[in-house]
């Protein structure tokens, strides 16, 4: 697995959890507390403390802002 693959896995999981009705803060807590599924924790560990982790968080935030704006209409 490379950083791009890890980011893609994580971003899709984060989006799916939000679509399932979880709050963003709860999903991130699940990720950072180690309570996520093992394949998610493995992908997260791969990018932990790298530029890719910050890129992932930025992409997730951008997606959330776009989705949130779409849901307000």
Describe the 3D structure:
The protein is mainly α. The chain is 81% helix and 0% strand. The protein is built from four helices and no strands. The chain has helices at 3-19, 24-33, 38-47, 51-72. α1 (3-19) crosses α3 (38-47) and α1 packs parallel to α4. The longest helix has 22 residues, at 51-72. The model has no long low-confidence stretch (mean pLDDT 92).
Name the features.
0% strand; single chain; mainly alpha
Please give the count of helices.
4
How many whole angstroms does the radius of gyration measure? 12 Å
> What is the distance, rounded to the nearest whole angstrom, between the alpha carbons of the first and last residues?
39 Å
How would you classify the helix and strand content by structural class? mainly alpha
Helical content class:
over 70%
Number of strands: 0
Strand content: under 5%
**Poorly predicted runs of 5 or more residues:** none
The average pLDDT score comes to 92
* Succession of helices and strands: HHHH
**Which overall shape is indicated by the principal axes computed on the Cα atoms?**
globular
Largest sheet: none
